[in-house]
Amino acid sequence: MALTNDTQAAQDHADALLDAAFECGISAVDTGHVYGAGASERAIGDWLERRGLADEVFVLSKGCHPDATGPRVNPEALAQDLAESLDRLRLPAVDLYMLHRDDPAVPVGEMVDAFAEHLAAGRLGAYGFSNWTRARIEEACDYAEANDRPLPAASSPNFSLADQVKDPWGGGCVTLTGKAAADDREWHRSTGMAIFAWSSLARGLFSGRVTRRTLAADPALVDEACRTAYVHDVNLKRLERVIEFAEAGRATVPQIALAWVLAQDLPLHAIVGAATEEEVEDLAAAAALSLTEEEAEWLQNGGRRPLSMARETLARRLERQAVRIGRRLPGPIKRPIKRLVGRA
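Given the sequence above, the corresponding structure tokens read:
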């Protein structure tokens, strides 16, 4: 849900998508102080207030994104952005607030102390870091433990079936994809720190709207960030396997790609975007679709096609797990997320 203005038409569109998501059992929303120059937070806040859902929806927002002058990771910027985020969201406190980027020149203790003050004041339920390296997160955890401060509760790196071969915006982004991040994935697995993975569909590569052939003919089908980070041979081969799997099982490309993300042995929540109500329902259905280890391995690395990919087998599985598009999924996801974040 990309919002770039505060028009009534934009609010109506946001309402439709958020209503569809909540009806499908999705009760967590990701936003950020910088998104749409504040339009995203305002739209969500307006929807929460009019629907009376402030206590039912888990809200994750982020602040301290760099601006034209450079990095903004400092206590003053955090205080300013958090205050503005709460005002836009019309909330007394946000469930989880993250630093959108890092500035390694800033000692972690300054930010941990600042977050501790906001936690004590009741302005947020938990804090975390987006696009911070494991080393910096570990440093923050060590400082918090040594100084009797609340521990960070979550991390938000990139993660999807597509390896992030290059930084989509030229610097400052962290990914858990690829062989180089194996130790980072193991650290999250062993510590249980919650992961809120951004670009879980590789910024549209797994949208179902593109193939290797159509991208070769018209690269503009995806944006420059997607082309830079994900449109590489290793990922195009995975896209071809996802398409093959989806066609064999009468599922959709986004469902299979998202099911792969959710099948990983990680304390992970996938952040995905949708432009229509139909896309919301399609993505929500993927949450209940499980893959076998053999299927997940084949999607990532290829090899012998799994026998379980037979059309009838996957179709029966979809029926058995009640993931027909449009059905309401069982139960909201707010409570398990709150339990995860609450470990801190």
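The radius of gyration is 20 Å. Try to locate this feature in the token string yourself.
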